[in-house]
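Hey, resending since the last one bounced:
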Amino acid sequence: MDDLFIIGKIVNTVGVRGELKIFPTTDDPRRFDLLDTVRIQLRGDEFTKKILKVRYHKNLVMLMLDGVDNLEAADALRGGVIVVQRGDALPLNDNEYYLQDLVGMAVLDEDGVSLGILADVIFTAANDVYVVRRDGKKDLLIPAIAQCILKVDVETKQMVVHLLDKLEL
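The structure tokens again:
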């Protein structure tokens, strides 16, 4: 399990005073209100900056950081990602998992037969959909609903699923 979670990507600047436009990659963008500093990874470097101001516009987060007070300084951070330690990630509810703990997990059916590896998660309005990569076959799409997902074991990196009749190929 990785120790760092990406919670946002610096996609642009706002104005000439160094404000950064962040695309949040977290379920709760308001989590930026809980941070005093941000840890930024950019082109192999990592550094921490104090947050001076957080505001929200549509689906984006706008940040003002200490020492980033002009357009040039802000533009130099474009493309960077904001990360937090696993211990600083937002707590999970029952039957919720961090995305990076799911990707790469072995997916088995109820009889213990390997179906493939969970390669991606598609987020939809109704429910998430797990993309299971299979050798020599088309990807299998499994809805992340209680009827299909029987067991998730993050420690052993295994998921046991029940395939609905129309999902079986």
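The first strand starts at residue 4 and ends at 14.

Sorry for the duplicate.
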